[in-house]
Amino acid sequence: MINRRNFLLGSGAVSAVAVMGLVPSLFSRRAGAQTTSEKFEITLTDAQWHQRLSEDQYRILREAGTERPYSSPLNAEHRQGEFACAGCNLALFSSATKFDSHTGWPSFWQPLPDAALTSRDTTLGMVRDEVHCRRCGGHLGHVFDDGPKPTGLRYCMNGLAMTFTPKA
Ligand SMILES: [Zn+2]
Questions:
Q1: pTM (2 decimals)?
Q2: 72-107 burial, b if ≥16 CB within 10 A, otherwise e?
Q3: Residue 39's pLDDT is what?
Q4: Neighbours of ion ligand 1 (CB under 5 A)
Q5: How far apart are CA 52 and CA 46, in angstroms?
Q6: Contacts of 164 (CB under 8 A, 6+ apart)
Q7: Over 90: is that where the pLDDT of 38 sits?
Q8: Could you give a GO molecular-function term held by this entry (predicted)?
Q9: pLDDT higher for 80 or 17?
Q10: What pLDDT is recorded for position 8?
Q11: All residues at 6 or more sequence positions from 7 whose CB lies less than 8 Å from its CB, including other chains
């Protein structure tokens, strides 16, 4: 079932025009979440984020960077459990919606309710829909409309932006 919120999230908002990450270093975008940090529940200073995150995590979550494909151990994570934001620990995705997209990035067809937000990303002359954490604004990845049923969406996520907790 597609609930109304996720339908709205996906419909019309998704324009897949490029495969993300062909040239990962070019996907860094300094503006990132900082420009709109006021509206997020969790806001930290740059120094605090540096303290909380590794350098690679900071580059992705706070500067909208992209990890190298097939570099995340979460690609091969097939246990039942939950994927949470590495910045603020908000639960983002259930393993029940994970699928193998063969892109080299952990991929899901639907986020958990009230977990992820999208915004239009026009960097590099492409129109993509950027996905970020609802609570801390951390950049997670992009969403495309070439995913599997039932939503047809592909949430292409950076493994470094998430932590995994297996179901107890
Ligand atoms: Zn977060």
A1: 0.77
A2: bebbebeeebbbbbbbbebbbbbbebbeebebbbbb
A3: 84
A4: 85, 87-88, 90, 133, 135-136, 138
A5: 10
A6: 74, 77, 79, 81, 82, 83, 84
A7: no
A8: peptide-methionine (R)-S-oxide reductase activity
A9: 80
A10: 42
A11: none
